[in-house]
Design brief:
It comes from Streptomyces daliensis. With 71 residues, the chain is mainly alpha-helical. It is built from one helix and two strands.
């Protein structure tokens, strides 16, 4: 798996890693992260995240429900 783009993680204020300039993948073990699952427009990103998280103890969050008015 080779990518040249930086990846960001958004964490809630007060999270132990929220102030870190960099977050190693190992530090995210036990977390569940949203990576666009269920969104046809982000299928490539979701596949990338699934491969990146595999075997690292990082969960992939389920899709968000559709919002009223969304096409």
């Amino acid at each position: 798996l080779v990518r040249y783009e930086r990846v960001a993680v958004l964490l809630p204020e007060g999270h132990a890693l929220a102030g870190a300039a960099e977050v190693p993948l190992a530090a995210l073990a036990g977390e569940t992260l949203y990576a666009g699952a269920g969104n046809d427009g982000t299928a490539e990103w979701t596949d990338y995240a699934r491969a990146l998280f595999a075997g690292r103890g990082i969960g992939l969050a389920p899709p968000f429900p559709k919002i009223d008015g969304e096409a």
